[in-house]
Amino acid sequence: MNYQDNSLKSLKLGQKTEYASQYDRTLLQPVPRALNRDGLGITQNQPFTIGADIWTAYEISWLNEKGLPQVAIADIYLDYQSQNLIESKSFKLYLNSFNQSKFTDFNAVQQTMQRDLSECAQGDVKVRLNPVAVYDAQKINHLQGDCIDEQDIEITSYEFNANWLKDCVSNEIVEEKLVSHLLKSNCLITNQPDWGTDQAQQAILTARNNKLNFETQRKTAEQTLRNLLNLKPNEALNITFPHIMNVKTAGVNLNVPVSVIANRPDVKAAQFRLSSAFKNAKATQKSWFPEVNLGASLSSTASTVGTALHNPVAAGTVGISLPFLNWNTVKWNVKISEADYETARLNYEQRITTALNNVDTNYFAFTQAQSTLSNLQQTHSYNQRITQYYRNRYNAGVSELREWLVAANTEKSSQLAILNAKYQVLQSENAVYSSMAGYYL
Questions:
Q1: Of 187, 198, 266, 340, which is the active-site residue?
Q2: Most buried of 58, 299, 321, 354, CB within 10 angstroms?
Q3: Looking at residues 320-333, what average pLDDT do you find?
Q4: Is 167 a catalytic site residue?
């Protein structure tokens, strides 16, 4: 590590200093996090997605507007993404500068500290002042997670080694929460050791792998569009992609003639094989497709896709019968044997049945996807309220930062679930019209 960095030369640590008699924000001195992270290769991309340096200040004092001393204990959370840490001696000098300064109330002191520390750290800092009385019943709680201190392992090296982090970029997705009470860091100036407890929660590569997968899928979709539009790789696609939540569904309309499924390739093929059995297909066309409407020719009374799907079914499938194609009705116009004709007719009926069942299944999936999206939107609304609740409790000093962060993470997860559910709605809607061989007004 480069502990000879110029940013350390002006630090007051290790030097004789005078205590300030009045509040002075300029006493705070930053220490860049990059001094340690550069050597580990994690300055730009940290192998963790949540974390904070937590300080507890047991000696906070100031004067109220009448000059009466006030005391409190402060919990200070320095976000892991901040550019700087705050040098400990300058931190103590800064806190002691409050001793003879007047402030209106707890909130004024808390806001002042939070503003000053955030500017020094160049990142998010949360400060919570707690009255001393709060700690009368305060318990020492163990951090959640698996403690790794009691492992039966042999250690021979105590130096920094970036290779120990190489598994953080493996293809294996791992999620774990670890706790250790053996965290030790040496002061950059005096080399004195500081001990602490470290809690690490890792969600290794999950979000990053998902992002890569989505980018690959998008590139594949763009390739398809380029092929359709005959565009070269260096030519602009000139397509604006709207936010998925702004994409409106066309709406599924089942109030259309059943004959629409005749446009399906499988039904068309079966129809062609059957029609080729007739000596004169036009002679039977009026009875085969009355008014060129396949739905009016079905044995069921249904004339639309919507009503056909509500006819009694057996074993979960729609039963289709075409009496106008019976052998006794059309044998005078058939040029193949009865057995071959019956095979072609049954194949035709099965294709129609399969098509209607396909529409039915896809429409059910569409309605389920809509219900799922609606439920997830309600869940997300509740999660937003819960996050705000814990945020208010934290700002009021009655809840831990961890509880707020967990709630915020749950809210973000529900937001991602909504995006996926909207995508499923669009996919299932397209599947309905694909099974109907197109969109019909």
A1: 187
A2: 354
A3: 55
A4: no
